[in-house]
Protein backbone atom coordinates (compact mmCIF):
# COMPACT_ATOMS: atom_id res chain seq x y z
CA UNK A 1 0.00 0.00 0.00
CA UNK A 2 2.81 2.42 0.88
CA UNK A 3 4.49 1.68 -2.45
CA UNK A 4 1.27 2.46 -4.33
CA UNK A 5 0.86 5.77 -2.50
CA UNK A 6 4.49 6.70 -3.17
CA UNK A 7 4.09 5.88 -6.87
CA UNK A 8 0.92 7.99 -7.17
CA UNK A 9 2.60 10.91 -5.42
CA UNK A 10 5.61 10.67 -7.73
CA UNK A 11 3.32 10.56 -10.78
CA UNK A 12 1.46 13.66 -9.58
CA UNK A 13 4.70 15.55 -9.03
CA UNK A 14 5.99 14.52 -12.48
CA UNK A 15 2.82 15.74 -14.20
CA UNK A 16 3.00 19.08 -12.41
CA UNK A 17 6.50 19.88 -13.62
CA UNK A 18 7.00 21.75 -16.91
CA UNK A 19 9.23 20.39 -19.62
CA UNK A 20 12.75 21.76 -19.70
CA UNK A 21 15.72 21.45 -21.98
CA UNK A 22 19.35 22.35 -21.51
CA UNK A 23 21.88 23.63 -24.02
CA UNK A 24 25.63 24.17 -24.13
CA UNK A 25 27.33 27.55 -24.00
CA UNK A 26 28.46 29.18 -27.22
CA UNK A 27 31.84 30.80 -27.80
CA UNK A 28 31.53 34.58 -28.26
CA UNK A 29 33.87 37.57 -28.26
CA UNK A 30 32.53 38.55 -24.82
CA UNK A 31 33.41 35.92 -22.19
CA UNK A 32 30.33 36.83 -20.09
CA UNK A 33 27.92 36.24 -23.01
CA UNK A 34 27.52 32.49 -23.36
CA UNK A 35 23.87 31.57 -24.06
CA UNK A 36 22.15 31.74 -27.43
CA UNK A 37 18.36 31.45 -27.52
CA UNK A 38 17.51 28.97 -30.28
CA UNK A 39 14.08 30.54 -30.88
CA UNK A 40 15.36 33.94 -32.07
CA UNK A 41 19.18 33.82 -31.99
CA UNK A 42 19.55 36.37 -29.18
CA UNK A 43 22.60 36.13 -26.91
CA UNK A 44 22.52 36.39 -23.12
CA UNK A 45 25.10 36.77 -20.37
CA UNK A 46 25.66 34.36 -17.50
CA UNK A 47 23.06 35.17 -14.84
CA UNK A 48 20.46 36.50 -17.31
CA UNK A 49 16.92 35.16 -17.46
CA UNK A 50 14.29 35.84 -20.12
CA UNK A 51 11.05 34.64 -21.71
CA UNK A 52 11.64 33.72 -25.34
CA UNK A 53 9.36 33.95 -28.39
CA UNK A 54 8.11 30.37 -27.80
CA UNK A 55 6.79 31.30 -24.30
CA UNK A 56 9.57 29.45 -22.51
CA UNK A 57 11.31 30.83 -19.43
CA UNK A 58 15.06 30.63 -19.97
CA UNK A 59 18.20 31.26 -18.00
CA UNK A 60 21.93 31.34 -18.59
CA UNK A 61 23.83 29.58 -15.81
CA UNK A 62 27.58 29.31 -15.31
CA UNK A 63 27.79 25.87 -16.98
CA UNK A 64 24.84 25.72 -19.41
CA UNK A 65 21.64 27.39 -20.58
CA UNK A 66 18.13 26.10 -19.94
CA UNK A 67 14.60 26.81 -21.06
CA UNK A 68 11.37 25.50 -19.49
CA UNK A 69 7.72 25.75 -20.40
CA UNK A 70 6.34 28.94 -18.89
CA UNK A 71 2.87 27.52 -18.28
CA UNK A 72 0.99 24.25 -18.16
CA UNK A 73 -0.71 22.99 -21.32
CA UNK A 74 -4.44 22.42 -20.83
CA UNK A 75 -5.92 18.99 -21.45
CA UNK A 76 -9.07 19.53 -23.48
CA UNK A 77 -12.06 17.30 -24.12
CA UNK A 78 -11.93 15.26 -27.33
CA UNK A 79 -14.11 17.70 -29.30
CA UNK A 80 -11.92 20.67 -28.39
CA UNK A 81 -8.56 22.01 -29.51
CA UNK A 82 -5.77 23.72 -27.56
CA UNK A 83 -3.79 26.54 -29.14
CA UNK A 84 -0.90 28.58 -27.73
CA UNK A 85 -1.10 32.31 -28.46
CA UNK A 86 2.59 33.23 -28.78
CA UNK A 87 1.83 36.97 -28.61
CA UNK A 88 0.18 36.72 -25.17
CA UNK A 89 1.84 33.47 -23.97
CA UNK A 90 -1.58 32.11 -23.13
CA UNK A 91 -3.43 28.95 -24.12
CA UNK A 92 -6.92 29.07 -25.57
CA UNK A 93 -9.22 26.05 -25.68
CA UNK A 94 -12.05 26.05 -28.20
CA UNK A 95 -14.37 23.68 -30.05
CA UNK A 96 -12.90 22.03 -33.15
CA UNK A 97 -16.13 22.48 -35.14
CA UNK A 98 -16.62 26.13 -34.09
CA UNK A 99 -13.55 28.08 -32.88
CA UNK A 100 -15.79 30.89 -31.61
CA UNK A 101 -17.06 28.61 -28.82
CA UNK A 102 -14.62 28.22 -25.90
CA UNK A 103 -14.15 24.90 -24.12
CA UNK A 104 -13.29 24.35 -20.50
CA UNK A 105 -10.19 22.28 -19.84
CA UNK A 106 -10.27 20.20 -16.68
CA UNK A 107 -6.55 20.12 -15.90
CA UNK A 108 -3.20 20.88 -17.41
CA UNK A 109 0.20 19.31 -17.80
CA UNK A 110 3.13 21.43 -16.73
CA UNK A 111 3.63 24.35 -14.43
Structure report:
- The structure is a single chain.
- By secondary structure, the protein is mainly beta.
- The chain folds into two domains: 20-69, Complement Module, domain 1, CATH 2.10.70.10; 74-107, N-terminal domain of TfIIb.
- Helix content is 14%, strand content 38%.
- The protein contains one helix and ten strands, in the order αββββββββββ.
- It has one helix at residues 2-16; strands spanning 20-23, 33-36, 43-45, 49-51, 56-60, 65-69, 73-75, 80-85, 90-95, 107-109.
- Strands 1-6-5-4 form a four-stranded antiparallel β-sheet, with no helix packed on it. Strands 2-3 form a two-stranded antiparallel sheet.
- It is elongated and about 55 Å long.
Secondary structure: number of strands = 10
State the helix count. Answer: 1
Q: Looking at the structure, what is the overall shape?
A: elongated
- Highest-level CATH class of the largest domain: Mainly Beta
| Percent of residues in helices | 10-25%
**CATH architecture designation of the largest domain:** Ribbon
Low-confidence stretches: 1-17
Main sheet record:
4 strands, antiparallel
CATH topology of the largest domain: Complement Module, domain 1
Nearest-angstrom radius of gyration?
18 Å
Q: What structural category arises from helix and sheet content?
A: mainly beta
- For the record, give the distance between the C-alpha atoms at the N and C termini, rounded to a whole number: 29 Å
* Strand order in space, largest sheet: 1-6-5-4
Number of domains: 2
CATH superfamily of the largest domain: Complement Module, domain 1
- Determine the mean pLDDT: 83
Classify the beta-strand content into a percent band. 35-45%
Pfam families: PSP94
InterPro entries: PSP94
Subcellular location: Secreted
GO cellular component, one term: extracellular region
